[in-house]
Model the fold of this input.
Amino acid sequence: MYYIGIDLGGTRIKIGLVKNSELIASEILPAKSFNGLVPHLSLIDQSIKKMLNNHSILSLKGIAMAFPGIVNPKTRKVLSTNEKYDDAIDLDLNKYYQDKWNCSFYMDNDTRMAAVGEWKFGAAIGSDDFVMMTIGTGIGTSAVIGGNLLQGKHFQAGCLGGHFVVNYNGTECTCGNIGCVEAEASSWNLTSLVQKHKNMQQGSVFVKGQIDFESLFSYASRGDLVAEEVKNYCLNIWAAGIITCIHAYDPELVVLGGGILKSADAVVPFIKKRVDKYAWTPWGKVKIKTAELSDFAGVLGVVYCLKNKVDA
Ligand SMILES: [Zn+2]
Done:
């Protein structure tokens, strides 16, 4: 029995062929999520076709999609988006995939599915109370409490940690709010954060090159003053978001994922220290771990959810 998992990221689409919960083939396609989902659908179909041909597979049991927005997994409908694949609200993806591939279809929020992947196969195995936060183009969260994946009445519970307010006087967010974690410190606002250090920019090599989190951490470690300041600002914002997640969901473990893991050596010790110092957890210390499934946590998680539904 073969399944396809599709994880729609802001700039990359991860596609995996899964058999018995194991990834047997995978491909990562570049994506321009601001152009919508429709221009990407045929590329995804081609990738699926190639994987099936390469493995001489004649039929699929199901296709599952992890989507960066608020999703109703019961109706397999996208309810709300935030500048990524905005046209998906008007698409009947359930019908599209059932007609095209004659198999069942499932979808849910991307970070929620990454959390399921890490829960069943990665860093959170054995934990029934944990929070996942992915930091990249945006910031996603998900929570498992008492062995239950948090979904909520409107399917947004646990998902909006990237939109916890950490600075009520801060930057306008794409969600319409002000000073969200994501608006203060994620890839999409990094350049404007750097611009705020105009008076320090003389002598900074960092500001003249490609501005992303990898270069930020790299230049900060080499003593670039602007990079160092912006790095510290971002680390403090993320730590504040994580501490708020801890206060909201009472986890024993926080799993960190996303593109930021390239700089895990700088990020994890800082977050650990802040959490130990500032989270109100009289029972003990919350563990901080990095995700173990890297790019394919969402693919494995969403296929796991589809399988459990299909097999039920
Ligand atoms: Zn927001």
